[in-house]
Design brief:
- The chain is an alpha+beta fold and 302 residues long.
- The protein has 3 domains: 87 residues, Pseudouridine synthase, CATH 3.30.2350; 113 residues, 2-Layer Sandwich (Pseudouridine synthase); 71 residues, Archaeosine Trna-guanine Transglycosylase, Chain: A, domain 4 (Roll).
- The protein contains 6 helices and 21 strands.
- The strands form 5 sheets. Strands 1, 2, 3, 4, 7, 10, 11, 12, 13 and 14 form a 10-stranded mixed β-sheet that branches. A 5-stranded mixed β-sheet has the order 15-17-18-19-16. Strands 5-6 form a two-stranded antiparallel ribbon.
- Strand 20 and strand 21 form a beta hairpin.
- Helix 1 packs parallel to helix 5.
- The chain is elongated.
- The N and C termini lie close together (10 Å).
Length: 302
């Protein structure tokens, strides 16, 4: 039976997001799995996965904010803007910079920025990822994109390593911020480590190692590792539908939800944990099911 769920993986270093999805397909015995935002191979942390019919909710997470903690190494830049790349120029034998100097250089990072993505990135040019063109030594020109840096805090300086935390909008490259910090300080810099601590409403407290998930599946306790459906999309209120409303939703018809007159979107449940649709208000208290997460088997919701 398909697993329709949301589970948060603590992505290990050295794995691509696609690697994690492929591994989870084997662990969960579920082909339909998608993630909510790529993490670079060197990065670790929160990688939310949607499985089965829950993949239909991905559209609501395309603009989700992310939060990170990490370190930036000063003294030389790399072609990828992170520790996986090749140095661009000589490595500084010694770096002398104070916490105050680094914080002063990072002041302009907060707010709306026009950011140039790294040439070695998954950004596509005519359908081809930029990193593939760059590695073929082909010309790569990526347009700057507008991003929002909600917060950027330098928490410490240890020799040539800068420790930081940040909260950014979707589409932001944290390694570009590391590169730009080096330029502002008049020296090269690159992202040395990165850990995603939050993605939308999902946090490290909900994240599980791949080994833990595999063990949970083997011991038939995978349900204890899943995110409860009522915790999804917290900006939308929840409502429990009666039998008449469930019947209408099953056939794609609008339903009357009197208690939701002030909401634009609502999560509709059959019982406490069966999320059957996300509905949008069309007029007054009338809601139309926009994303239906139920299927019909006779008269039973499955």
């Amino acid at each position: 039976m398909p697993l329709n769920a949301v589970i948060v993986v603590d992505k290990p270093a050295g794995w691509t997001s696609h690697d994690v999805v492929a591994k989870m397909r084997g662990i969960l015995h579920e082909r339909s799995i998608g993630h909510l935002g790529t993490l670079d191979p060197m990065a670790t942390g929160v990688l939310p996965l949607l499985t089965g019919r829950m993949t239909r909710l991905a559209q609501f997470y395309t603009m989700a904010d992310k939060a990170y903690e990490g370190t930036i190494r000063l003294g030389f830049a790399t072609d990828t803007y992170d520790a996986d790349g090749e140095p661009l120029g000589p490595i500084a034998p010694e770096v002398k910079v104070s916490l105050e100097e680094v914080r002063a250089a990072s002041v302009g990072f907060v707010g709306s920025l026009c950011q140039s993505p790294p040439l070695i990135s998954a950004k596509k040019i005519a359908g081809v990822p930029a990193y593939k063109l760059a590695r073929r030594k082909q010309a790569v020109e990526l347009r700057p994109v507008n991003v929002e840096i909600r917060g950027f805090e330098v928490t410490g300086v240890d020799g040539d390593f800068v420790h930081f935390s940040c909260r950014v909008s979707s589409g932001t490259y944290v390694r570009s911020l590391a590169h730009e910090l080096g330029m502002k300080l008049g020296m090269g810099a690159h992202l040395a480590s990165l850990r995603r601590t939050e993605s939308s409403e999902f946090s490290l407290a909900q994240a599980h190692a791949l080994e833990e998930i595999a063990q949970g599946m083997a011991q038939e306790r995978i349900a204890t590792l899943l995110v409860h459906p009522r915790r999804l999309l917290p900006e939308m209120p929840c409502v429990t539908a009666n039998a008449e409303a469930i019947g209408k939703i099953r056939h794609g018809r609008a339903v009357n939800l009197p208690e939701m007159s002030r909401s634009k979107w609502v999560k509709v449940f059959a019982g406490q944990s069966d999320l059957i649709c996300v509905a949008k208000r069309v007029a007054g208290t009338l809601f139309h099911p926009k994303v239906v997460l139920m299927e019909v088997e006779g008269s039973k919701v499955v």
